[in-house]
Specification:
By secondary structure, the protein is mainly β. About 15% of the residues lie in helices and about 40% in strands. The chain has one domain: CheA-289, Domain 4 (OB fold (Dihydrolipoamide Acetyltransferase, E2P), Beta Barrel). It has helices at about 70-75, 150-155, 160-170, 175-180; strands at about 5, 10, 20-25, 30-35, 35-40, 55-60, 65-70, 90-95, 100-105, 110-115, 120, 135-140, 145-150.
Length: about 180
C-alpha cells in the first residue's frame, strides 16, 4: 500500500481523488478507503472466542464464512464499544484475491462516503494522536476539519489477528453459528 511522503503527495499513486467510508468511534471521525470495504452490516450476534484479547469481540457467520470481529475502540486502547442501535460492523477485505482475509470492525456509527482529493491529505502526526502512528495513513481535510484515514493493513495485521484468522479458516464452524445466516 502506498505511504504518504509529504502533504498531498502519495507515492506511486495518481492524483485522482479517492473515496473513503467515514465513521465515528468514541466521538472521533475516521475513514477507510472504500476499495477495502466489502459491506456494512447491522451489529448482531457475535460469538465470543475464548482466550482472545479484548479487542477481538469474536466471530460472526457471514453467509457461511467465519469472520473475526475486531472492536476498534478496544484495539486503539480504549474501552470496549457499547453496542447501540446505530452500531455497525464494517466488513473489510485485505490482500490479494487468492490470499485475502476478511475482518469485521465494530464502529459506533457509519457516516458517509466522501471523495478526498490527494492534495487534501496531510501526513499523519508524529505525536499527539490517540492511536498508534502506524495505524494512521493520513489526515484528510474536510470542511475545515480533519478525518483520520486509517491504515487498515496495520490496524488489522498483528500476530493475534493472524492467529485468529488461521483458527477461523482451519477449524469447523461453531455449532452456534452453523444455523445463523
Amino acid at each position: 500500500m502506498a505511504e504518504i511522503i509529504k502533504a498531498g503527495q502519495l507515492s506511486g499513486t495518481s492524483q485522482e481523488p479517492r473515496q473513503y467510508l467515514t465513521f465515528t468511534l468514541g466521538g472521533e471521525m475516521y475513514a477507510v478507503e472504500t476499495l477495502s470495504v466489502k459491506e456494512i452490516i447491522e451489529y448482531g450476534h457475535v460469538t465470543a472466542v475464548p482466550m482472545m484479547p479484548a479487542s477481538i469481540r469474536g466471530v460472526i457467520n457471514l453467509r457461511g464464512a467465519v469472520v473475526p470481529v475486531i472492536d476498534l475502540k478496544a484495539r486503539f486502547g480504549g474501552r470496549s464499544t457499547e453496542a447501540t442501535r446505530r452500531t455497525c460492523i464494517v466488513i473489510i477485505e485485505l490482500g490479494e484475491t487468492d490470499a485475502h482475509q476478511v475482518f469485521g470492525i465494530v464502529v459506533d456509527t457509519v457516516s458517509e462516503v466522501l471523495e478526498i482529493p490527494v492534495a487534501e491529505i496531510e501526513p499523519p502526526p508524529s505525536f499527539g494522536a490517540r492511536i498508534r502512528a502506524d495505524f494512521i495513513r493520513g489526515m484528510g481535510k474536510i470542511n475545515g476539519g480533519f478525518v483520520i484515514l486509517l491504515n487498515v493493513d496495520a490496524v488489522l495485521s498483528t500476530d493475534e489477528l493472524s492467529m485468529l484468522s488461521e483458527v477461523a479458516q482451519h477449524s469447523p464452524m461453531p455449532a452456534a453459528l452453523a444455523h445463523v445466516e
